[in-house]
# Entry
Amino acid sequence: MCILCPIRATGFSNFSSIQQWEKQWTDSKYTFPATRNTPKLCAAVSGIFANCAVSRRNRACNRAGWDEAVTNIIRHAYSSDHRQKLTVQCSILDDRLEIVLQDSGTAANIETMKSRDLTNVRPGGLGMHFINTTMDIVDYQSNGTAGNQLTRQNICQKTGIQMLNIEITNQDSAAIVVISGEVDLYSSPKVRESLLALTKKEQPAIVINLQDVGYMDSSGLATLIEGMQSSAKYGGKFLLTNLQEGVLEVFQLSQLDKVFKIYDSPETALKDI
# Structure
């Protein structure tokens, strides 16, 4: 599956939240002032990677590379003229994320765009290193007179990253919800949407299989609490299974292991329905 982004130009200032930026950005192509929105843009980049279950460490690295790409355009293509504009587009492909960044500034000399020797310790010069090492594929294009395009791809299968995925199957009166990936601030809205869709139709039993969830923060916990409470309103059962050690520790730290019904496997949970 490839989500191709239709072309639309707008200002990010119309968006009320980072999450809204992420949702809109992955559906469109945006042109905006180079500097004013850079912090929010970088946060949105991090959020998009989080939605694809990229680890927190890799999110930080990719955000650093993205920030350097924007900084280089402002400094070199636009000669530090912050009034100039950038165009950005994100495509979510089957096995990768692709981000395309375009400017209309001075054409770059592609041959000279190389990472410096890291043994030569000095201020500056690390931007190209960050850009070239934080993504699997980096492609530069210049039209020779004005304007440049940077295409960056992160290949999820190559780096062992598992895209955030939610699968729901039915077994008798139970809905088995299998979640894969990290559940945090950026990805938990997707989990919430799936769970509340089940409770809205008063699903008698909901079994959450967390075997492939390697990380969960307080936002993920809040999402599960909301699902459990929503289910309890109509007398439904809300059961958790297959918690990895790190995730189970989060539940124990918050004492939620005493609140939720937690089982070793979906099969064991189904016997208790």
In short: Residues 1-22, 157-161 have pLDDT under 50 and may be disordered. Helices lie at 18-25, 38-51, 56-77, 127-133, 188-200, 218-232, 245-253, 266-271.
